[in-house]
């Protein structure tokens, strides 16, 4: 199963990108606001990293890769699709606003905000609130989750938990930088719902 990809953009598509990683081109679906962000940054020449949700079922036999900028965004998506009638394909199209804003709207029971998302009507918005209210508060702070490749200082207010754990692995436990990055990446691939450094350490050392 594919959980993480690094590569360069070969081309943009209407609902995602063709990503070149290891001499293989992967079709990756992205939410609309991420496609727009990558286009505005002229990212075709620069490497990008994506946390990937792999979707394949009997009704959807063709594998679908859905990409996210951070583990937190992926974890929110996985929570979002637990709502009845919101499958992965509908969810990725609906995420026309950042995950933290959607989470905040759910916690505030803001039906009007949710109905502004692509493909979400009033009844579905009410179902989202009924299912997820009280369960997505931890995602409200996702705006502060920083990527190592992100140059926007305003996004770096809250340190990425992956980077925190990498620093401890290297500085206190003696692992190499490459080994620490691999351990963190593999932990997130196994468990996309990790939201604290403690949970990340448990995932890493509980499976060694």
Structure characterization notes:
With 208 residues, the protein is an alpha+beta fold. The chain folds into three domains: 65 residues, Nucleic acid-binding proteins (OB fold (Dihydrolipoamide Acetyltransferase, E2P)), CATH 2.40.50; 71 residues, 5' to 3' exonuclease, C-terminal subdomain (DNA polymerase, domain 1), CATH 1.10.150.20; 47 residues. The chain contains nine helices and five strands; from the N terminus they run βββαββαααααααα. The protein has a five-stranded mixed barrel with strand order 1-2-3-5-4. Strand 2 and strand 3 form a beta hairpin. Helix 7 packs across helix 8. It is globular and about 55 Å long. The protein starts with a strand and ends with a helix.
What does the secondary structure layout of this molecule look like, with pairings?
Blueprint: E1 4-13, E2 16-21, E3 24-29, H1 32-40, E4 48-55, E5 64-68, H2 71-80, H3 88-94, H4 99-107, H5 111-114, H6 122-132, H7 161-171, H8 177-190, H9 197-205
Parallel strand pairs: 3-5
Antiparallel strand pairs: 1-2, 1-4, 2-3, 4-5
Helix pairs in contact: 7-8
Termini gap: 19 Å
Shape: globular
- Compute the number of strand runs: 5
Could you give the order of the helices and strands?
A: EEEHEEHHHHHHHH
Strand content: 15-25%
Helix count equals 9
CATH superfamily of the largest domain: 5' to 3' exonuclease, C-terminal subdomain
CATH topology of the largest domain: DNA polymerase, domain 1
